[in-house]
Structure formats: C-alpha cells, structure tokens
C-alpha cells in the first residue's frame, strides 16, 4: 500500500507537469475562460497571474489600500470583526489545558481524545471600529519594531465580509474575477478581506472552493500540497476549543492580556492536519520530523510567494499553509474570491483515498507521542518569550 500511495504522489505531480521542482506556474496575463477551465480547473493545477491582471483596480492603481488615512476615513463608521490569539495561530492546533480543579486527564464522551493533549483552537473574535482594529493589527506585529504584545490581531472574517463589513471600500476592487466567473458559470459565493501582520499565519487546511487569492499590499507565502498527498498531513480528529480573553479591554500599549482556552460545548471533534511545517522551536521541529515522516521526508511542497497585485489560483481541495510579509505600513492586505467547486466523481475519488489508512499515517501512536512532546516544548518556548 505504501508503495502504491507514493507512486500516486509522483504520477499526480507528473500529470500536473510540475514534478518535484517545488514551483508554481506563473502567467504574464490572465488566461482565457476556456483555457482556465481546461488547463487549470479540470486539471486541478495552481498558477499565479502577474500584476497586469489587477493594475486597473483603484486599490492598487491608486495605492488606496496602502494609505492608512484613506482606509480609516472610508471605514471610520464601520464595525469589523477582529480575530485575536496569543501567537497569531488561529484555527490551528494548540495545547489543551487540563480541566481546572481536576487531577490527571479527563476523557471525551466518545473516548477519542484526552484532555491535556492538543486541540483545534479558534480565535477570540471581537467587534471594534475599523481605525481601532487597524491600529491593533499593526501594533501586535513585529514589522514596526519588536513586539511585546501578548495578543496578535488578524482581520480574517470569512463570511463574505468585503461586501458586508467593508462595503465602503468594496468598490476599490473587482466584485468578481470576470474570466473565472465566465469559466465556472457563476459568481463567487463569498469575497473576503484579510488584514494581518507578520505574526499571523494559517495552518495547513483545504477548502471546498475554487479560490482566487489576490494580494493588495505586502506579500503572502504559500506552501501547497495536492489532495492526492492527503496522507502526508496526518489528519486526525481534535477537540474544538476557542480562545477567550480574561480582560475586556485591549490596550495596545501593554502586553498584560491573558488568554484562556475553553473547550466548546457541546463537545465536538474537528478533523485537522497534524503537521506544523514551521514549529516555534528546534525541539518542536525534531518532534515533528520524527512523528510525521511522510511530510518531512516526502516530495517538497509547492512553494510560492504572491506579491502585491498578483492573483493565485488555488484549486479546490488543495492543502495550503500561509504566512505573510507586511508592507512598509506594517500590514498585509488581501482579497479572496471563493467559487463553488464542482462536486463530481473526482471528489468521490479523493474522499475514498482519504479513507484508506496509510501504514505510516495511521495517526494515533504518532499523534499521541507528538502531542506529549509538542505540548511540553510549546509551553517551555512560549513561557520564555514575549508573545
């Protein structure tokens, strides 16, 4: 079985004509709708389009979104959602504390996971006026100097927020990507705005959408894996939890905020990727490499940097991890367009592939060992630095 799965990795990459070079194809201009559908959507192949595709957008051509005064004035009366974490890792795995006042470990109702291991941690979401939100995002990053903030703020509301919370500036970019809309026969289901700093990152995951991701300011750095390499990410169920703030006030001048991590009620499990390609310490990296060899010893992920004005086509079901480099103002701004994917026989094949247990990704023993070691190293590391 292991040999067959590894052969699948090689054959799939050869069919995408991208081999093991680790790059993503770049186009000088947008593809025609027919070429986009035939060569990329049907083939499930990513690509990047140069800034020529967006140079007519006012947000870019007039540098409107590089101007904090413009944004704060246009959105001065707008309340937006800001996602807060202690370390910039929302929707990611984090150590789950033991139940307060209890001894030892407690077990979930279905017995699948013990408290004290890792959980799927969602951000604490606060609503605030946009100027305050932008100030907080910038203040909790490192781009403008060493940060002692114990919170990282990221505007990443994924509910069609651009024409919603940010409607006042939605006209500065296209409402949809014309060549994609024509090829796919529909308008995007959601258009989202992202504003973050250099401490914000997104863990490996996949989406059931055809994703057109446009960077407006700064840069985004992607690691990509095709859906045929699902076993390399050791997907396991984790308890769902959410960060809460012990303080009702956000003071960007102090680092005294404290987060609690609380298990959602009723309890639920979230299937999530166990691999962290950029662990916070050398000790954690050693644990990751020994626990998840299919990722670290396998073919290199596709790597790409999407610069201001460029569009990344991220095919549905591709796994992606994202980091960012801010602009001179200390923030990275992007817009993404989610188009419904086609739930066809390829989707059924991929679900079947994921259901097959690879001998080296059969999860429990590797995950339990990794949880113990990572939690210990994580606590030691984050107790020794300002985060």
Characterize the main sheet.
6 strands, mixed
Please tell me the total number of domains.
1
How far is the N terminus from the C terminus?
43 Å
Please report the number of helical segments.
Answer: 10
Q: Going across the biggest sheet, name each strand in turn.
A: 1-2-17-11-19-9
The overall average pLDDT, rounded, is 87
Find the count of extended strands (DSSP E, 2+ residues).
Answer: 19
CATH topology (fold) name = Jelly Rolls
> Structural class, from secondary structure content?
alpha+beta
Please state roughly what percent of the residues sit in beta strands, choosing from under 5%, 5-15%, 15-25%, 25-35%, 35-45% or over 45%. Answer: 25-35%
Order of helices and strands: HEHEHHEEEEEHEHEEEEEEEHHEEEEHH
Which percent bin holds the helix content?
Answer: 25-40%
Radius of gyration: 21 Å
Shape estimate: globular
Which parts are unreliable, with pLDDT below 50 for 5 consecutive residues or more? 101-111, 381-387
CATH superfamily: Jelly Rolls
Pfam family, one: Cupin_8
InterPro entries: Cupin_8, JmjC_dom, RmlC-like_jellyroll
Protein name: JmjC domain-containing protein 7
Domain JmjC: 153-354
Account of the protein in words:
It is built from ten helices and 19 strands. The strands form four sheets. A six-stranded mixed beta sheet has the order 1-2-17-11-19-9. The C terminus is likely disordered. The protein has a single domain, classed as Jelly Rolls. It has 387 residues and is α+β, with helices and mostly antiparallel strands.
């Amino acid at each position: 079985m292991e040999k067959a799965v590894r052969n699948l990795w090689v054959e799939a990459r050869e069919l995408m004509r991208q081999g093991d070079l680790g790059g993503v194809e770049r186009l000088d201009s947008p593809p025609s709708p027919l070429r986009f559908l035939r060569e990329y959507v049907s083939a499930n192949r990513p690509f990047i389009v140069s800034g020529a595709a967006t140079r007519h957008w006012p947000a870019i051509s007039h540098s409107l979104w590089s101007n904090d005064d413009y944004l704060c004035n246009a959105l001065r009366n707008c309340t937006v959602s800001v996602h807060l974490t202690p370390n910039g890792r929302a929707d990611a795995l984090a150590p789950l504390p033991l139940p307060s006042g209890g001894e030892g470990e407690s077990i979930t109702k279905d017995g699948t996971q013990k408290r004290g291991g890792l959980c799927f941690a969602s951000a604490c979401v606060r609503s605030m006026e946009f100027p305050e939100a932008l100030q907080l995002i910038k203040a909790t990053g490192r781009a403008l100097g060493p940060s002692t903030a114990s919170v990282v703020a990221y505007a990443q509301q994924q509910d069609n927020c651009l024409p919603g919370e940010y409607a006042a500036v939605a006209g500065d970019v296209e409402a949809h990507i014309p060549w994609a809309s024509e090829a796919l026969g529909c308008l995007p289901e959601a258009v989202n705005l992202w504003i973050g700093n250099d401490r914000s990152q997104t863990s490996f995951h996949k989406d059931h959408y055809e994703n057109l991701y446009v960077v407006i300011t700064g840069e985004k750095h992607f690691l990509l894996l095709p859906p045929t390499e699902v076993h390399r990410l050791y997907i396991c169920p984790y308890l769902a939890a959410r960060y809460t703030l012990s303080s009702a006030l956000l003071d960007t001048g102090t680092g005294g905020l404290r987060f609690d991590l609380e298990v959602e009620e009723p309890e639920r499990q979230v299937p999530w990727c166990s691999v962290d390609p950029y662990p916070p310490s050398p000790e954690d990296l050693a644990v990751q490499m020994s626990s998840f060899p299919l990722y670290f010893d396998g073919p290199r992920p596709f790597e790409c940097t999407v610069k201001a004005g460029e569009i990344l086509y991220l095919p549905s079901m591709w796994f992606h991890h994202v980091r960012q480099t801010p602009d001179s103002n200390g923030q990275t701004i992007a817009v993404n367009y989610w188009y419904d994917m086609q739930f066809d026989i390829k989707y059924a094949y991929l679900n079947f592939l994921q259901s097959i247990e690879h001998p080296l990704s059969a999860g429990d023993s590797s995950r339990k060992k990794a949880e113990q070691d990572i939690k210990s190293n994580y606590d030691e590391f984050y107790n020794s630095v300002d985060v």
